[in-house]
Specification:
The strands form three sheets. The protein has a five-stranded antiparallel sheet, with no helix packed on it. It has a five-stranded antiparallel sheet with strand order 8-7-10-5-12. The protein has a two-stranded antiparallel sheet with strand order 2-3. It is mainly beta. The chain has one helix and twelve strands; from the N terminus they run E-E-E-E-E-E-E-E-E-E-E-E-H. A hairpin with a 6-residue loop joins strand 2 and strand 3. It starts with 12 loop residues before the first strand and ends with a helix. It binds thymidine-5'-diphosphate.
Length: 140
């Protein structure tokens, strides 16, 4: 599959195609065109109460594109050495999160929708849920 070095500098914000229309815009994501992986799963977080924090884990093999389909939130990405905070607030921009990156999602605006395109189906075995476990995994 893809081989990126698992550091935060390889987690980029990508601009997605947008068709402007006074009656409402369209953004398109197509396998083979707009993403460096094929989408096997889509999920979205919504009705997130103010002050909630999501994420708090890393993945071993999963690639994800995280989009603020509505509203805004901040994604904190951490490769065990460096951290960066990225605010997502436009539906035609997404953050690519590669394997081996700890992420937390915070500061959800009211009505925010966190829309996620993922390279694999759900697998609990792919998660690293403890930060100490994550640091140990990065040292391997
Ligand atoms: P999790 O990924 O930990 O949520 P977040 O990082 O947004 O806080 O998932 C929360 C729960 O939902 C967990 O019990 C696993 C389950 N889940 C699925 O069953 N399938 C999925 O595709 C996802 C993303 C989560």
């Amino acid at each position: 599959m893809l081989s990126y070095v698992s550091d935060i500098h390889n987690c980029n914000v990508v601009e997605l195609p947008k068709i402007h229309n006074p009656a409402g815009n369209i953004t398109i994501v197509q396998n083979g065109a707009d993403l460096p992986f094929d989408v096997k799963r889509i999920y979205y977080l919504y009705d997130v109460p103010g002050g909630s924090e999501r994420g708090g884990h890393a993945h071993k093999n999963l690639y994800q594109l995280i989009v603020a389909a509505s509203g805004s939130f901040d994604v904190i990405i951490d490769d065990g050495q460096q951290k960066k905070i990225i605010q997502l607030n436009r539906p035609n921009f997404g953050l690519m999160v590669i394997p081996g990156i700890w992420r937390e999602i915070v500061n959800f605006s009211s009505g925010a929708i966190c829309f996620v395109l993922a390279s694999q189906k759900y697998s609990e075995e792919d998660y690293i849920r403890g930060y100490e476990d994550f640091l140990a995994y990065k040292m391997q």
